[in-house]
Model the fold of this input.
Amino acid sequence: MEDKGISKTEVFRQLKEFKKKDMTHRSGKILGSMCTCPHPVGLRAYQMFLESNLGDPGLFKGTKAMEDEVITLLGDLLGKQDIHGHIITGGTEANIMAMRAARNSAKLENPGIKDPEIIVPKSAHFSFKKAADMLCLNIMEAKLDSNYKVDVNSIEEMLSKNTVAVVAVAGTTELGKVDPVEDISNICLENNIYLHVDAAFGGYSIPFLTEIGYEFPKFDFKLKGVCSITIDPHKMGLAPIPTGGILFREKKYLDAMSIETPYLTEDRQSTIVGTRTGASTAATWALMKYLGREGYKKVSNQCMEITKLLYEGIIESGFEMVTEPQLNIVAFKSKDISVDELARRLENLGWAVSKSSYPRAIRVIVMPHIKEKHVKAFIEDLKSLNL
Amino acid sequence: MEDKGISKTEVFRQLKEFKKKDMTHRSGKILGSMCTCPHPVGLRAYQMFLESNLGDPGLFKGTKAMEDEVITLLGDLLGKQDIHGHIITGGTEANIMAMRAARNSAKLENPGIKDPEIIVPKSAHFSFKKAADMLCLNIMEAKLDSNYKVDVNSIEEMLSKNTVAVVAVAGTTELGKVDPVEDISNICLENNIYLHVDAAFGGYSIPFLTEIGYEFPKFDFKLKGVCSITIDPHKMGLAPIPTGGILFREKKYLDAMSIETPYLTEDRQSTIVGTRTGASTAATWALMKYLGREGYKKVSNQCMEITKLLYEGIIESGFEMVTEPQLNIVAFKSKDISVDELARRLENLGWAVSKSSYPRAIRVIVMPHIKEKHVKAFIEDLKSLNL
Done:
């Protein structure tokens, strides 16, 4: 039977039906995601560069120039202008690249390493488990302190001749905590060990909140031990998916994992993805230029203000915080019913909440699409549960 | 100093300046890329779903339903409707996923494997070198025959107790050749070894060209030994970047590499990328529905017709083919000057050609953006070189 396709009208009618089944960020009902409504300026820039492929940068010299500029801007934001990196698909690709750079660099320095190990906080994102499986690394989980930040002593105890990388987190996925990176940086410097900071979530807010007066520990390239940082424009940077960022202190880390590309307009490639959209770079560039630091300050400050509202409302409704929020993530539970049961009841009321695994709690990420009215409605619903 | 950002007008003026420095597919000057102008229907579908994240599919149930449907459509195209897979970033992520599935499955069956090996044709894409480095696999390159297809005997000689995967290619990156997959499938079945077919380039054209009457060897799931296939919608499928596809014969291959995802709306994740745009799925779905098999037949047939024109024109201009084209890739050289020098002269005339590494040649991929008028102009320029 011939398949001549269906009409354009019918294709888009069916697409709209599919879309109706998707939730929207704009509804304010997505409480458990680190993604958000992309900013219109980022969206338009993204759409302008949908044809561009940074996997073949000789063909797209304008996009490549933009990528170079945006990497410098991100480096500047994170304490070191003279930096090397790429705009990639997101935090997972960034974290895997960092672990690969660390492993390959350690093997270059010390070819005797047989069973390379990485030490990550128990709070680290699951992409490090993925990286460990992919890259044949043993993964050691360092303990957390009572505030769910990594226990530096636990890291120190785990160090061995096989350690190829230590990971610290600036804005943990589940609770938004910032690890004591300065102490870890000193330990890594003393022991000549690669330190990667996963700031996928916090990278686009900690620097701005610090300028406003919030207090955070140091976490970026100003600390000499930090070798690489993950920072995700598609989280608090307001860019569309897929837009991640990976920055390295030295070019040698990119070189340590570059693969020869015989037929392309660049000679070697260090990203995991090969053909790589330039649209993500354009969105990141446009948003940094348009919003400027002042614009991003407003965005992160507003998220913190709404976080406070939510925090107070949850306590007032009789629920328990599992920890004090440090960034725009609130985690709480009920004295009376389990986290699973609480999640179920909230889902029945239309809220897409997420559950943290350690500690078990309901986790709300106050992304820029969560407005005051959504928080108020959520608190009303919490109260209506009569717990 | 306060950075208040720049105006929207100024942002887009600067973006346009960057864009002017990029080449366009529409110009017909990009002769060495496997990407092309995305089809307008795919672009519009892509733009409709820019907010959707298949890394958290419980929030985007419409997009998830579309992905399930599109995987079945791709499976149907490649000989097996009942198939498992994902729409991902491109051929590299697909090939790495396949090698990871193969390695992990082999280790589950035989935990004694110490130094896992993969056997790939010398003509395989460089993503397999990337996969080997990442996944700690030894990579063995099987020889090619005089037509630059893999030599099946060479594969057989390389098999060992450490072999965890064999790779065959349906549409090699440099020359567009289709390996004798049926023989390789039989060998892999006999030896109980995982066979992956990289049809990133050929997957969206060989099935259509076969229906028109072109002759190709079997290469898909109809061959019982084939465990997985890479097929790239952002190449001959006309979708925007990033849009790749990976299909597995059995779900166990996805399971063998799945990682627990503690806080998301799915429990486990097998893709490399975590947060994953649903826009690519929407574009793939829309194009398959809109164009139908008849539409794709026209696209691939037209590319082959123009390939013939180019082939004849190159011979007429006194250049040498290094091999007969099997798909829409033409590779040639000059008797008088080196490939590098020929590439330089063509670049001076504005053509972005690519050079194949084995054999050394100028390589032109006749993607859908290359029209008859571009080929005629190129032939004129070849003649004007007076070689």
Notes: Chain A touches chain B through 104 residues (CB under 8 Å). Chain A has twelve helices and 13 strands. The first strand of chain A starts at residue 84 and ends at 88. Chain A has a mean pLDDT of 97.
